[in-house]
Amino acid sequence: MPYNLKSETDVKEYITNLGIEYRFGCYSEKNPEVCHLLGDYLEAIDKDFQKAARVYQTNCDDYKYPKSCYKYGAYSLLGKGVKKQDYKEAYKYFEKGCNLNNPESCLHQGLLLVSNNSSNGISPNILKGMSLLEKACTEKNANACYYISGMYISGVRKPNVKTKANEEVGEDSYEVKKDMKQAYKYTLEGCNLGNIYSCANLSQMYARGDGVEKNQELAEKYKKIALEMQEEMTSQKTLTFGQGLENS
Question: Hey, which family's this protein in (predicted)?
């Protein structure tokens, strides 16, 4: 029997039955994809983050479902649905997800390794972190491409390297040396994958001739792309707000 999705009663029945189907598919049929959908259902519909976290964790540990590894890692990172925020636990599950070729997991594992936040309990490892970001970028994660490009634009100092004010820093103090050609490569990839900041940086690179031959026409092209992305993001926010008013 088809549901009338304009009927509030039918919609509620549909959502309830969907939850029943996901539970059966996960607990009885042990289908990892359905288990992940159950986690999403518990998160988005029931707002039961503790149960969602347990489903994601089990689906990662028992069935090696990469998206669930990422989700439980994110929950641990934020302290959502778990007893407390735990960076080491987050890292563990991001690593599991990355080993299963989930680009979002590789991105976050890499970011934890390149972070200067000493309070998170993760020992910095710039080169390993960068290799993970490169893996995520290769797997078409736009944010990873953007972060790598930024590392090449500014360079990354070795941990614990301290200098006095106005003191020049030698190249041997850098774990990752500035390299505008590499920065251009990853900026271009990030822009092509839809990262607005990469497109804005790409426009500046062409305008200045940083890492690529100066080209004002291409500078304007990528500036226009970035502005169009910004406009689209703004209109989406406006649309969502308007929908919220209509449904209130």
Answer: Belongs to the hcp beta-lactamase family.
